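Lecture notes, unit on binding sites. The following record was shown on slide 14. It pairs a sequence with nicotinamide-adenine-dinucleotide.
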Amino acid sequence: MAELRGALIGCGFFAVNQMHAWRDIDSASIVAICDRDPERLKVLGDQFGIERRYTDAAALFAGESLDFVDIATTAPSHRSLVEMAAQNRVPAICQKPFAPTLADAKAMVKACSDAGVALMVHENFRWQSPIQAVRAVLDSGDIGTPFFGRISFRSAYDVFSGQPYLATGKRFIIEDLGIHSLDIARFLLGDVSTITTRTARINPNIAGEDVATMLMDHKSGATSVVDCSYATKLAAEPFPQTLVEIDGSDGTIRLEQDYRLTVTGRNGTAVSDVSPPLLPWASRPWHNIQESVVAIQKHWVACLASKTEPATSGADNLKTLALVEAAYAGAASGEPVQLDALL
Ligand code: NAD
Ligand code: 89Y
């Protein structure tokens, strides 16, 4: 297969990981980059040796012949950039959160579908190797049919120094981090019919909620609790680990801190270390996330080659984004929210 020619839009904090990951993938490369901030464009361009640089996305699409575009900007620009990709018939990856509203996200999915171009949301947490290990245990049937799950992310890591915009939005943890946990809950236990949510703001220096607790009914009959916090000071800081508990008819799965996986199933109990590898360019504690960036980008390349729909396609991600919208609506009303009414 000829090497795919990609462009990256948005040369900020997280894009560095995506650029490293593209370098790890033989069958694709980034040939051009774009950022409306010339300084950020220069820093990333110099770091990765990319000469073709644009401060305007329309000029990028006009000036390049591309097999895909990787959109690594923040949510407010996602709709216009994805629609621009669709108009130019260029398959697109879009960072999470897919869009500020579900209505925007639906329009983005429609634009790409009408144009016949692939669209994947960079929803990478389900691609973390510890989460994939949990999925593999479920697939093995060892714990039987799951009836309960807990997806938990509790930390006091300072995410605001690298991503200052997280402190200023009316919405914070559900939209930024809980969105990953909600997606993992869908990945492990299937789609959701109802969600009930409580939120709090503990840190007085930010605008949005930094604690959220969500109770979900899955269509499979399972119940899950998704809890996340950036106000939880622990003896050992677990960032950015997602901890998982699943109870099934024949056993249990526990993914605990330090990537310790305990499976109690039909054949007894097995404990294993499912730590992600530390890639040569990665740095702790981000290595878990960084490895998943390579995994999701490889998945995108494989899907383009085989013309199959990515696991976290735009259409799939509407169901995760609907959970985010429903969580905020439910936190405001105090009432459970039905998902099917939103989709
Ligand atoms: P950032 O603000 O550091 O970088 C975004 C860049 O996009 C900026 O340099 C900005 O100038 C540029 N930009 C914005 N609109 C543009 C436009 N229309 N045209 C060209 N350039 C434009 O943000 P970040 O922290 O890198 O986050 C980017 C996205 O990645 C966010 O949506 C965030 O939620 C997501 N993110 C994902 C993960 C993950 O694990 N998946 C982790 C961190 C951040
Ligand atoms: O933006 C967030 C994400 O997607 O993963 C962790 C993060 O960087 C901070 O919460």
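Take-home: DSSP finds nine helices and 15 strands in the chain.
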